[in-house]
Design a protein that fits this description.
The chain has 88 residues and is mostly helical. The protein has three helices and no strands. Helix 1 crosses helix 3. The longest helix has 22 residues.
C-alpha cells in the first residue's frame, strides 16, 4: 500500500472511530480526520511490533483495517483525555 492508500484508510478509520466513540471532539471534523490518518500509521506500527503481525500490503485485509481503527480509537481517546471537551 502506498501513502495515498494509508491516507484513505486513515480517513475511513477516523470516521469509524468517531462513530464508535461519539461526542464532540475539540478538533472537530478536521481533527478527527488527522487523528484517523495518524491512527492508521500508529495501529500498523503497534500491530507489527507488539503483536508480531505485520500489516499486509492489501487494502482490503481485515487485520489492516482492525489495526487502523484500533490505532484511531487509541489516539482519539488520548486526544480527549489530553485536551478535554473544549467545545462546550
Amino acid at each position: 500500500m502506498g501513502i495515498v492508500s494509508w491516507i484513505v484508510l486513515g480517513l475511513l478509520a477516523g470516521a469509524i472511530a468517531k462513530v464508535l466513540l461519539p461526542g464532540r471532539d475539540p478538533g472537530g471534523l478536521i481533527g478527527t480526520t488527522v487523528i484517523g490518518i495518524a491512527g492508521a500509521f500508529v495501529g500498523g506500527w503497534l500491530s507489527a511490533h507488539f503483536l508480531h503481525r505485520p500489516v499486509t500490503k492489501h487494502f482490503f485485509d481485515g487485520a489492516t483495517w482492525a489495526a487502523a481503527i484500533g490505532g484511531s480509537l487509541v489516539l482519539l481517546i488520548l486526544y480527549r483525555v489530553l485536551f478535554g471537551n473544549s467545545r462546550d
